[in-house]
Amino acid sequence: MRLTKKDLLGIQDLSVDEINLILDTAESFIEVSTREIKKVPTLRGKTIINLFMEPSTRTRTSFEIAGKRLGADTVNISATTSSVVKGETLIDMARNLEAMNPDVIVIRHNASGAPHMLAKLVKQSIINAGDGAHEHPTQALLDMMTIKARKGRIAGLRVAIIGDIAHSRVARSNIYGLTRMGAQVTVAGPATMLPRQIEQMGVTVHQHLEEAIKDVDIIMMLRIQTEREQQNIFPSLREYSRCFCLNRKNIRLAKDDALVMHPGPINRGVEIAPDIADGPASVILEQVTNGVAVRMALLYLLTGGKS
Amino acid sequence: MRLTKKDLLGIQDLSVDEINLILDTAESFIEVSTREIKKVPTLRGKTIINLFMEPSTRTRTSFEIAGKRLGADTVNISATTSSVVKGETLIDMARNLEAMNPDVIVIRHNASGAPHMLAKLVKQSIINAGDGAHEHPTQALLDMMTIKARKGRIAGLRVAIIGDIAHSRVARSNIYGLTRMGAQVTVAGPATMLPRQIEQMGVTVHQHLEEAIKDVDIIMMLRIQTEREQQNIFPSLREYSRCFCLNRKNIRLAKDDALVMHPGPINRGVEIAPDIADGPASVILEQVTNGVAVRMALLYLLTGGKS
Amino acid sequence: MRLTKKDLLGIQDLSVDEINLILDTAESFIEVSTREIKKVPTLRGKTIINLFMEPSTRTRTSFEIAGKRLGADTVNISATTSSVVKGETLIDMARNLEAMNPDVIVIRHNASGAPHMLAKLVKQSIINAGDGAHEHPTQALLDMMTIKARKGRIAGLRVAIIGDIAHSRVARSNIYGLTRMGAQVTVAGPATMLPRQIEQMGVTVHQHLEEAIKDVDIIMMLRIQTEREQQNIFPSLREYSRCFCLNRKNIRLAKDDALVMHPGPINRGVEIAPDIADGPASVILEQVTNGVAVRMALLYLLTGGKS
């Protein structure tokens, strides 16, 4: 089976079959990163551009390692070193990159919809590595891969997503993906961090963490953008932490075998207690490992590979 | 035929035969970037250092892709992340890089003559990727390649170069190259942007765009450094644009089959109207594509390859 | 023979046999960088992460070239472009990188002990590329390699290290290594730049350069951190230079065949006169060349290679 899409722009566009295709392909790539020689020649002679207009370590590194392990050439462009300082528009930059004949352009941008605009403009495959508060589809795919690897399925599971739902592209992509795959999703966060009419996305809403995580299989904690403290979105980190930090006490409300997830980087003691982040329920580092595999799968499938 | 030079420092140093050798070699490399597997092992085991002391996306990316498609190892050094912050001189940095045995050092620097100084100091091949307001030879080579591909020749063509001639390394390199190859070159720009005694470079000078582009085969628009507006070199962007923006009206003065070129990044609506930049006469993106091929050709020829 | 250590954290941890193993292996790699095709497939399919939390050209470039010439995939992460801006701790960053299954993490950090902390946390090999004022073991190894290549031995040589001993990780690593290998080490510098009880490291101390370099085989000049001038550690650069600059006059006090070394980048006219830096006694650029070989040796040995 092949992925017939040119681009990966968001989870919202993906069918159940497409998600399963990506997850199954990713599963088959996990093994490559554990070999003595962690490299296959699958994408030899392909050029992958990582265009990161927002700072990022893990996502850029994950894509770069994924590309290199498939034998592709990877080229990094970051906003700070780029000609964006000369005032070039993203459209013109994209057309220029297109003219250099890459095979895939991975883009992270602080404007929602930037990858979609690019996808229409250029003939190459675009992968959305996070656009504003819109989507972060590779994160949701690696989250779903992690859940499936641990629980054997996604359908029927109860998942709580906790934190700044309104400003989180991770939350949006996961809500799209998890509900489509048949999970029941609950969200909780301070009132100022819950988007209006969020129920229309098919989730149940709670104002308290305790209600949201009751009897769930998966607790997905979101990163608090501590820089927003200034903006009066929430009273203080201390106040936030008092109500929405996952700790050894409130975690007992979830199922005994509940998994704890976080997209990273974590704020220890703000949204998650250190002993929970490092504890037996945490699959945070498995998420990172699976991220490389999911990105390998996408690079492979979007350049014409079949499972 | 081989290129007997150690370095590519400027177009001023190149003979007609050398220019033709580079353009013909570049022509033969165009095809590599359109293959399914865009990679040849020609420069396997060669090390290419891209030393960029000025911000750049397209030129650095173009060189990096060129190197990788030839199988070379590429290493990027940018001013912001380099030990230049420790006050090391360019000379000492160059000698240090030399001691690591690279094969080619590509350098962009805001000081005119920096690549020439390096070329004398180190045994490796130096490629000038733009030095101050002096030369940008790979840009002129890709421009000439684009003209030749479209018009079948350079000799005898009429070319207008419009804009900030005085501060443009692109203009200087193109004037050297185009006149050497037998084209007739006209320049136009505001009086403050025309260098004195420019006629001695073998060009005719006009103060108005309309006079300069009359009956020309090629219109080469230069990028306005909008940051110079502060410096009273020209009254205002608006004023500049009123007199020197290429648009659908004034372009009719050129030949019907005239080509529009621009080194990028473009300031839409300042030096070029959007519909002209994106219109049928524009070969701006072909310039970018040819840039990769020209840089592949230079890396190949300077490391001992023959056509 | 194999290196049984997981990590290279400091010279202090190395036995004479281990130092000899590294130097001999490095010697055998020198030749690779002089070939027409400077590449061997030894580390194909290995992933090396260069995590540089302080600016650096030469060390990062040296490691990157070393990795690429062994056929490894190299990934650069610098503090300025990383998610450290999001407040992630080094511990969490390291665990995340670990989860992507690299083989070696090279780290430079301004905190002493940072590499040691990482080494305990992650299963991969850690190489210390400079930690605060603590150690810079690859520098000391390339220095010892250079001495051995020129003098045929280290034991019994007299070595003077001149400058800011107290704040120099280069000095500390070299003192550990040179004394262990049987050299007699003398240090000199302004009183504010000599650590208390430095004699306990097995060196003799002088307050004047002239006394320290008398009859030595090796003069190792340290870089003055000119940015410290503000901090009243020394009166002025001029004053420092008057007392501690190696020049054509005071160098006569050393042996006739004494070698001049410097870890770079050099401050010409501050700690070393230009004619000495570029003169016949100087092996500064050989140090740089040997640096690539030493780093190749370490990458090779730490990933399981044997000599």
Give an account of the 3D structure.
The structure is a homotrimer of 307-residue chains. In chain A, α1 packs across α5 (137-151), α2 (58-69) packs across α10 (284-302) and α5 packs across α6 (169-180). In chain A, the strands form two sheets. A five-stranded parallel beta sheet of chain A has the order 7-6-5-8-9. Chain A is globular. The first copy, chain A, is α/β, with parallel strands linked by helices. In chain A, α4 (114-121) links the parallel β3 and β4 (125-131). Chain A is built from ten helices and nine strands. Chains B and C meet through β2 and α3 of B and α2 and α10 of C.
Percentage of residues in strands of chain A: 5-15%
Order of helices and strands of chain A: HEHEHEHEHEHEEHEHEHH
- CA-to-CA gap between the ends of chain A? 6 Å
Please give the largest β-sheet of chain A: 5 strands, parallel
Q: Tell me the quaternary state.
A: homotrimer
What would you call the shape of chain A? globular
Uncertain spans of chain A: none
Give a quick rundown of the structure:
Three copies of one chain form a homotrimer. Chain A is α/β, with parallel strands linked by helices and 307 residues long. Helix content of chain A is 35%, strand content 15%.
Label this structure with key terms.
307 residues; alpha/beta; homotrimer; four-stranded parallel sheet; 15% strand; 9 strands
Q: Secondary-structure blueprint of this entry?
A:
Three copies of one chain form a homotrimer.
Chain A: H1 16-29, E1 47-52, H2 58-69, E2 73-78, H3 90-99, E3 104-109, H4 114-121, E4 125-131, H5 137-151, E5 158-162, H6 169-180, E6 184-188, E7 204-206, H7 209-213, E8 218-221, H8 237-244, E9 259-261, H9 274-277, H10 284-302
Parallel strand pairs in A: 1-2, 1-3, 3-4, 5-6, 5-8, 6-7, 8-9
